[in-house]
Specification:
Layout lengths: L1 H74 L4 H67 L4 H66 L5 H93 L1
Protein name: ABC transmembrane type-1 domain-containing protein
Subcellular location: Membrane
Membrane topology: Multi-pass membrane protein
Length: 315
């Protein structure tokens, strides 16, 4: 009877371990879905970078327009009113660029927040999985304490619990590191926004001043207008350099995010594989124990049958 009770208990433990393995497989599927969502976010970031490149092309076109204007001034000497209209057009285009850059930065902030939410969701799912494993292994630990015949299995369960606690601490540390990293990225974006807005505002103020000067200096020669247009050209080039710097910083930010996501995925996959290997080892030990108990039960049955047949032969 004692052997039969042990066999029933081992079968229950085997079923419980199989359930844990199924839960780990489901967690791996959820992890793959979250990885796909992160890839979609990275694609959105790439689209934003393409929009920034389009803005750079627009600035290049503005520079070409100014160069053509200089050539026309040198060749034909356009009227001053037409030059004023062209400067107003440039001013409106610069305002449009400013609005587009603000929109791009806001979209980047939103994408970073979405990425932060996805990472938090992933870490919370893993924490819930580990807590579920702890709760499922606690009854096994109590059963092993009640049956002192399986000390080896009890030690393995204790080691597994300690390992799960260490994994919980590790995931909490990773969560804190990710939060710090994302806060740093947000601060970097705010600094970039300031670096972009200040030169653009200065450029707009300068254009307004130039328009006022042109209105006041309608009777001056064409050389002054040429100098003003050259100054605008230089300012546009400065803006182009700033946008190129922003593009490089965004590319670096994208690379950092890719590396962070890659490291996080590798770490999570390694943790899941480690848990599955431990559960499989525990399952193998339980199977060996069940086979040993079956072998002992078979030996006892053979001894009982042999004793009954020998006593019957004596009678």
């Amino acid at each position: 009877m004692l052997l039969l009770l042990l066999l029933l208990q081992q079968q229950q433990q085997l079923l419980l371990l199989l359930l844990l393995l199924l839960l780990l497989q489901q967690q791996q599927q959820q992890l793959l879905l979250l990885i796909l969502l992160q890839l979609l976010l990275l694609l959105l970031l790439l689209l934003l970078l393409l929009l920034l490149l389009l803005l750079l092309l627009l600035l290049l076109l503005l520079q070409l327009l100014l160069l053509l204007l200089l050539l026309l001034l040198l060749l034909r000497r356009l009227p001053i009113l037409l030059l004023l209209l062209l400067l107003l057009l440039l001013l409106l285009l610069l305002l449009l660029l400013l609005l587009l850059l603000l929109l791009l930065l806001l979209l980047l902030l939103l994408l970073l927040l979405l990425l932060l939410l996805l990472l938090l969701l992933l870490l919370l799912l893993l924490l819930l999985l580990l807590l579920l494993l702890l709760l499922l292994l606690l009854p096994l630990l109590v059963l092993q304490l009640l049956l002192p015949l399986q000390l080896l299995l009890l030690l393995l369960l204790l080691l597994l619990l300690l390992l799960l606690l260490l994994l919980l601490l590790l995931l909490l540390l990773l969560l804190l590191l990710l939060l710090l990293l994302l806060l740093l990225l947000l601060l970097l974006l705010l600094l970039l926004l300031l670096l972009l807005l200040l030169p653009l505002l200065l450029l707009l103020l300068l254009l307004l001043l130039l328009l006022l000067l042109l209105l006041l200096l309608l009777l001056l020669q064409q050389l002054l207008l040429l100098l003003l247009l050259l100054l605008l050209l230089l300012l546009l080039r400065l803006l182009l350099l700033l946008l190129l710097l922003l593009l490089l910083l965004l590319l670096l930010l994208l690379l950092l995010l890719l590396l962070l996501l890659l490291l996080l995925r590798l770490l999570l996959l390694l943790l899941l594989l480690l848990l599955m290997l431990l559960l499989q080892l525990l399952l193998l030990l339980l199977l060996l124990l069940v086979l040993l108990l079956l072998f002992l039960l078979l030996i006892i049955i053979i001894i009982i049958v042999y004793s009954l047949t020998s006593s019957h032969a004596k009678y």
